[in-house]
Amino acid sequence: MTTHDSGSAPKPPAKDPFDLPDVSGLTVGVIGGTGPQGRGLAYRLARAGQKVVIGSRAADRAEAAAAELGHGVEGAENAACARRSDIVIVAVPWEGHAKTLESLREELAGKIVVDCVNPLGFDKKGAYALTPEEGSAAEQAAALLPDSRVTAAFHHLSAVLLQDESIEEIDTDVLVLGEARADTDTVQALANRIPGMRGIFAGRLRNAHQVESLVANLISVNRRYKAHAGLRITDV
């Protein structure tokens, strides 16, 4: 009996989507770390044992905020914060997003950049989503930082809950978007460092607009129900 070798090697087993890298040794920079969202993320990550550097346009302001946060958080001017960090979260106001990233292009080259900026407008009817020319804040970041590994995450978190020292766990999932699995896995693992949080892959950067826009809906939920709502993905 003659057998024929098809010449094709067996396929390797699929990677476990929850087999994530160890990120405990990474230094996390937070550009916009003196604002509510950035300050809250810095506090939660540092409280979980992550080394954190917060950035501001003024070094003395960043250092003062870091001293208030404690847990080993350090403060620096934005460029120094970016240089000293392995992974950098961008948590600046939408109005200053492009200008801030343009000024840090060299310092952010080669690094994972996590954009959590939500382009929103406000009027008497409440919050509403804006559509950047590039499609989303994350896609704008990718266009402005061609040498960086841009991802998007941490959009739907309440700054109030993040900064509340009496709260032990933040009950929410974190939607993570990006182009390279290694990068999104790293950001998911970073989200998992915060008790109660879980990082969930949610697509490529082209899908970031609806993730950023959903914050307008959450603001409406929070106002109606006097809450600090988050998101949970079921059946995962």
TrEMBL record:
Residues 1-21 are annotated as: Disordered. Keywords: Oxidoreductase. Residues 27-119 form the Pyrroline-5-carboxylate reductase catalytic N-terminal domain. Gene3D superfamilies: NAD(P)-binding Rossmann-like Domain. The keyword Oxidoreductase applies. It comes from the Bacteria. PANTHER family: DUDULIN-RELATED (PTHR14239), F420-DEPENDENT NADP REDUCTASE (PTHR14239:SF0). This is NADPH-dependent F420 reductase. It comes from Streptomyces flavovirens. The lineage of its organism: Bacteria, Bacillati, Actinomycetota, Actinomycetes, Kitasatosporales. The gene is npdG.
